[in-house]
Amino acid sequence: MERHSLLFLTLLLALCASAQRDQRIYLFSCSAELPISATKPLVEQVQQLDPNGRISIDGALLKVAISRSVASGELLGHLDHAGVGSFTALPGTQKSDTHQAPTDLPVYHDTGNPEADRTAYDAAKTAWQNAHPELFQGEHNTTHEQR
Fold first, then answer.
1. 0.90 exceeded by the pTM?
2. Which residues pair with 62 in a beta bridge?
3. With helix as H, strand as E and coil as C, how does the chain read?
4. Are 79 and 88 a contacting pair, CB within 8 Å?
5. Which of 19-33, 113-127, 129-143 has the highest mean pLDDT?
């Protein structure tokens, strides 16, 4: 019995790892800054297309990790259907079915020290913007990060 459990767990881990490799990352700009209340409807729309889909919000910037089988136009339609704003794909993030946007977007890490956390995040965000000027257009205010 123990051997079957170990085999099942190994197979389950392999399937989970495989599902994550089959994702594409898209970057979108919203017509307005996204409040924290926009997270739930956006997650619901993304997960209708892919139960393993994830989002990250930074002001008016939206990052979506979703299955490669989801067409970009279908994703854009679902995002607009969330009712939180009008979305536009950032240039260079949907050039072809095999193109991937950078996966090194800065992430806010909560260490319990909000001032130091904000300073570290702002520095990482500025460094990312300087490293990827072709993907980042305009200024986006930082409000929150959702993983």
1. no
2. 28, 57
3. CHHHHHHHHHHHHHHHHHHHHCEEEEEEEECCCCCHHHHHHHHHHHHHHCCCCEEEEECCEEEEEEECCCCHHHHHHHHHHCCCCCEEECCCCCCCCCCCCCCCCCCCCCCCCHHHHHHHHHHHHHHHHHHCCCCCCCCCCCCCCCC
4. no
5. 113-127
Characterize 108-139 residue by residue with b for buried, 16 or more Cβ atoms within 10 angstroms of its Cβ, and e for exposed.
Answer: beeeeeeeeeeeebeebbeebeeebeebbeee
> Hey, how many other C-beta atoms are within 10 angstroms of the C-beta on 84?
22
- What's the pLDDT tens digit per position in 46-80? 999 999 999 988 888 889 888 888 888 888 889 98
Domains of the chain from N-terminus onward: 21-131 (3.30.70.100)
